[in-house]
Amino acid sequence: MMNFWGSEWMDSSNSTEILDRRRLSEAWYKKTIIEMFTEYNIDDKIEFIKSDKIEALLVFHVEKLWKGFSKKWSSSFHTDNCKHTECSKAIIIDGHMKGTRSVCAARGVQYVESKELGTVEMGCWKMPCKGSMYCQDHKNLQMQDHKAPVAKEYDNEEDSTDCKTLKEKGPLIKCKTAGICASVYNCGIINGMKELYGCESLTQVYMFLVWLAKELLHFPNLLAYDDACHLKKFIINPLRAIKSQYSQFLAALRIVVDKMHFANHVDKWCRRNVNPYTDEQFKNINTEACEQTFQFVAKYKYSIQLNICHMENIICSC
Ligand SMILES: [Zn+2]
Ligand SMILES: [Zn+2]
Ligand SMILES: [Zn+2]
Fold first, then answer.
1. Protein residues with C-beta less than 5 angstroms from the ion ligand 3
2. Ligand showing the shortest atom-to-Cα distance for residue 229
3. Strands across the sheet with 177-185, in order?
4. What is the CA(284)–ligand 1 centre distance, in A?
5. From what superkingdom does this record's organism come (predicted)?
6. CA distances from 296 to 26, 32, 291 (A)
7. Distance between CA 54 and CA 115 in Å, rounded?
8. Is residue 17's pLDDT more than 80?
9. Closest to 192 in 3D by CA, of 58, 92, 50, 114
């Protein structure tokens, strides 16, 4: 019979109620939420979170939580303690399809004003009701009324390479999120993440970069992305580049394809302009840092990925 300390809690034969491992993980999860709320000055009075309110609470504060996260991990808290010889020399961004979840199929219901891009249509981010393609708010809508517009999110200019790497053209299921877009320093520390709706489109990746340019305390001048050719053409488009201080900042970055995906970039323009092997500054940069870090994070639901990223950074910086 078991006789180690605490064994009586795990033994159901003596009519003790067993401590369920899910209660334990929930308690840990709530504890990290309260810690983050305090640390990022969101709310320092939370003492108790009802289990059925966690999701709603996180959704309500998600923007502030990510801002706090990005500020913390781009600050001297990271750089003063990082043992990596090339700490924070470059940012690597990557989209992950694994973290997909179902979202409502309603289109044209939410718009975001962007100084750099004008009015941008965003899909509805809510979960569809059971047996429906729409969320509670949009369940009366018919699919034909809200067909996704034939999105012309990029100009011909961006599409003028021979590389088949533009993700908007890949197979996509309209009513799913494309998962997450993550940003990682080359030393492996995560500095930001966004959920993308529809697909990993240039527009959404661009908006994420503008967000990072605003929020990060340190944004190096080197950037790697697997579809760098289309992204770079989108960013340096002269009409777009002059829109704000952030679009100007992005246009001045050195942008390359990450080393692993460069073989797919067959176009001469890419070979000349986004080649990670001919740019001396990328010589010692691990451009796969994002891919490696996110194989782990992408397995989790978006709502808890903030906690997972937090944990992953702590493990990585030890
Ligand atoms: Zn570092
Ligand atoms: Zn909806
Ligand atoms: Zn290319």
1. 161, 163, 229, 265, 267, 270
2. 3
3. 190-197, 177-185, 90-96, 222-225, 254-256
4. 14
5. Eukaryota
6. 20, 19, 9
7. 33
8. no
9. 92
How close are the terminal C-alpha atoms of the chain, in Å?
39
Q: Answer yes or no: are the C-beta atoms of 230 and 159 closer than 8 Å.
A: yes
ipTM entry: 0.91
The DSSP H or E segment spanning 313 is helix 302-316
Residue in the structure block whose two tokens are 């709530």: 30
| HEC assignment per residue over 76-101 | HHHHCCCCCCCCCCEEEEEEECCCCC
**Would you state the structure tokens that stand for residue 160, as one six-digit string?**
């003028």
3-state secondary structure 252-280: CCEEECCHHHHHHCCCHHHHHHCCCCCCH
User: Which residue carries 């910086």 as its tokens?
Assistant: 317
Give the torsion sign (CA, 7, 8, 9, 12): positive
On the question of pLDDT at 265 being above 70, the answer is yes
- Reported as a single tens digit per residue, the pLDDT across 112-169 is 899 999 988 877 878 888 888 888 888 887 555 544 443 444 445 566 677 777 665 4
Distance 316 CA to ligand 1 centre (A): 9
**For residue 91, which of 289, 262, 302, 226 has the smallest C-alpha distance?**
289
Question: Scanning the structure block, which residue is given the tokens 């011909």?
Answer: 156
Name the H helices within 153-277.
202-215, 228-236, 238-241, 245-251, 268-273
What is the domain partition of the chain in residue ranges? 15-316
- The amino acid occupying position 95 is G
Six token digits for residue 149: 């517009």
Q: 26 by DSSP, 3-state: which?
A: helix
CA angle 180, 206, 94 (to 5 degrees): 35
Nearest bound ligand to CA 289? 1
**Is residue 229's pLDDT more than 60?**
yes
Q: Are 290 and 93 in contact (CB under 8 A)?
A: yes
The residue assigned the tokens 């939580």 is 65
Inter-CA distances, 31 with 57, 113, 310, Å: 14, 36, 13
Which residue type is seen at 251? A
Please report where in the chains the tokens 């080393």 appear, as a residue.
Answer: 259
